[in-house]
Design goal:
Elements (H helix, E strand, L loop, with lengths): L1 H10 L4 H14 L7 E2 L6 H8 L18 E2 L6 H11 L13 H12 L14 H4 L20 H19 L24 H19 L5 H28 L2
Antiparallel strand pairs: 1-2
Helix pairs in contact: 1-5, 2-7, 7-8, 7-9, 8-9
């Protein structure tokens, strides 16, 4: 998730619904691993080829003899899609498809493919997050068309709702506290050194904020909310670093 946040910081939007749906899609497509996988969750190219051997994209294609089965967080599939995404990102994905299994590359594909992005188009299906989450639309079920029609659309929408609740809790200011006598976590003063102690204090405050949310959740939702504690900590620490750069302190 750290690599996804890095890519989001560079090329994402200001709408938390977009980030939440991207996290929900990542969670679903990777079987909750949140990291690049081969189709069928196989460990080797040989094993993955065996899984897709009878499918239309299961035969070697193009000049390099690769099989372009699903790879990465979003399961990039088909030769033409590797060529297109490679051109957009400036990477030789068709020549070296296993680059998609590198986390930073995979997250760049995820962000570019689900947003209008550099291509000004939803690169997976022609649909993008901006089509389903904007000033007049809030359609977490329909947003599944960005990747794969209506397959598991309502399930992923439920993940999105949980991710969004956790992301908004992590980004809220001040953070809610479990107990009335607890003070919400705040960033250290600008003239304090950036230390692990400060980061852990922030993380602890986020834990308090998220714990109230997890009490109402079950199953994968708990995993999601706990994971977003880290997201909130990263965002807050990065925000402080940006503040220090702006003020020169």
């Amino acid at each position: 998730m750290g690599d996804l946040l890095d890519e989001w910081e560079k090329n994402g939007t200001s709408d938390p619904r977009h980030l939440a749906y991207m996290l929900a899609t990542d969670f679903h497509e990777t079987g909750s691993k949140m990291q690049p996988v081969r189709e069928g969750f196989k460990k080797t190219d040989k094993e993955a080829r065996r899984v897709v051997a009878r499918r239309k994209y299961g035969k070697p294609e193009g000049p390099w003899g690769h099989v372009y089965y699903g790879r990465g967080d979003i399961q990039l599939t088909w030769f033409d899609n590797y060529v297109r995404m490679g051109k957009i990102l400036g990477l030789p994905l068709a020549e070296k498809p296993d680059l998609v299994l590198k986390s930073k590359v995979s997250k760049a594909i995820l962000v570019e493919g689900m947003l209008d992005g550099a291509s000004k188009d939803g690169d997976f299906t022609g649909k993008s997050l901006q089509d389903y989450f904007n000033e007049t639309t809030d359609d977490a079920v329909g947003a599944r068309r960005i990747v794969n029609g209506t397959d598991k659309a309502r399930l992923i929408a439920s993940y999105h709702a949980e991710f969004l609740e956790a992301v908004e809790a992590a980004l809220s200011e001040p953070l809610a506290a479990d107990e009335a006598d607890e003070q919400p976590a705040r960033l250290p003063k600008a003239n304090d050194p950036i230390t692990w102690g400060g980061a852990l204090a922030t993380l602890g405050g986020l834990g308090s904020a998220i714990s109230a949310t997890t009490e109402r959740m079950g199953g994968p939702a708990t995993f999601i909310a706990i994971g977003v504690i880290g997201i909130g900590a990263v965002l807050l620490v990065r925000g402080r670093n940006a503040l220090l750069k702006e003020t020169g302190e």
